[in-house]
């Protein structure tokens, strides 16, 4: 690891198929022997990091690609051998899936990442949520406003947790993490403490061995999460929070507003570009 030099500049680049890859910059300017030596060094370093990782306890994280689960990913990497799962549930803001991929590439070592295709939910739940239905506009306004209820996807976290618990059992992991926090409690029933406790109960009896469900940020607000993330140097420029999946974040939806308020509260500038800039 250590200091970056002219040979170690990397960049996350969106590929033609929509996936994200970490590209080493300036390769063309390097002599092939230097390139080969550098690649071998990188590989050796990655293998060492992976060996350390393999000795840690396995854990699964539900990673949306937003700033809360992005912070939790970097938080967990300190202690666990983390496996990330992201859900494509037909959301308008599919851009967050690419953010999740980029975040997994940015951790040391890189985090194994599964994208689960549940895009059929878009048709199945189309009457319920402005996140799934193009004819229902994502409301502007504050997160706690009544209008934000249209952004609820029915039972989303139970659907995702059920699959993540199955994935954990398959991996031999005993813990599943997700980043529900206190700012979600007002409108999202499946982010409230009572939901988490009941999920913990059912996860403990759904298979031969119990699986634990953890929501370590349950009593934190978004500013608390940001404070943790800044200490961990989470690359927030690679997170995506906006419910409108446009080129730039809208700055007006409840999700954007809550994010911007959190950055304001801790006195830092959000590295994302906004339509309102
Ligand atoms: Zn927005």
What does this entry look like structurally?
The chain is of the alpha/beta class and about 280 residues long. It has a domain at about 10-25 and about 55-135 and about 155-235: Rossmann fold. The chain contains 8 helices and 7 strands; from the N terminus they run ββαβαβαβααβαβαα. It has helices spanning about 30-55, 65-75, 95-105, 120-125, 155-170, 195-205, 220-230, 255-265; strands at about 10-15, 20-25, 55-60, 80-90, 115, 175, 210-215. The strands form 2 sheets. The protein has a 5-stranded parallel β-sheet, with helices on both faces. The chain has a two-stranded antiparallel ribbon with strand order 1-2. Helix 2 packs across helix 7 (about 220-230) and helix 7 (about 220-230) crosses helix 8 (about 255-265). The longest helix has 23 residues, at about 30-55. It is globular, with a radius of gyration of 19 Å. It starts with 9 loop residues before the first strand and ends in a 12-residue tail after the last helix. Zinc ion (ZN) binds near residues 242, 250, 253 and 255.
């Amino acid at each position: 690891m250590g200091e970056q030099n002219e040979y170690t500049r990397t960049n996350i680049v969106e590929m033609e198929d929509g996936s994200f890859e970490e590209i080493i910059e300036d390769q063309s300017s390097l002599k092939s022997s230097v390139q080969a030596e550098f690649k071998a060094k990188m590989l050796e370093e990655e293998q060492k990091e992976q060996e350390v990782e393999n000795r840690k306890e396995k854990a699964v994280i539900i990673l949306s690609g937003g700033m809360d689960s992005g912070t939790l990913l970097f938080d967990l990497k300190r202690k666990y051998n983390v496996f990330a799962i992201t859900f494509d549930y037909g959301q308008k803001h599919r851009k967050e899936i690419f953010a999740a991929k980029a975040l997994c590439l940015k951790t040391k070592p890189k985090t194994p990442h599964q994208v689960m295709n549940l895009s059929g939910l878009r048709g199945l739940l189309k009457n319920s949520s402005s996140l799934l239905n193009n004819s229902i506009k994502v409301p502007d306004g504050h997160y706690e406003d009544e209008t934000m209820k249209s952004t609820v996807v029915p039972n989303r976290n139970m659907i995702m947790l059920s699959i993540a618990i199955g994935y954990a059992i398959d991996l031999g992991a005993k813990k599943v993490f997700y980043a529900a926090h206190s700012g979600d409690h007002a409108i999202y029933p499946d982010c409230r403490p009572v939901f988490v406790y009941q999920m913990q109960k059912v996860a403990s009896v759904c298979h031969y061995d119990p699986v634990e469900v953890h929501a370590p940020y349950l009593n934190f607000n978004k500013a608390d999460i940001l404070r943790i993330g800044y200490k961990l140097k989470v690359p927030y420029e690679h997170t995506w929070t906006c419910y409108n999946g446009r080129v730039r974040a809208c700055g007006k939806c409840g999700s954007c507003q809550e994010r911007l308020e959190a950055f304001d509260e801790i006195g830092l500038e959000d590295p994302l570009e906004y339509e309102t800039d």
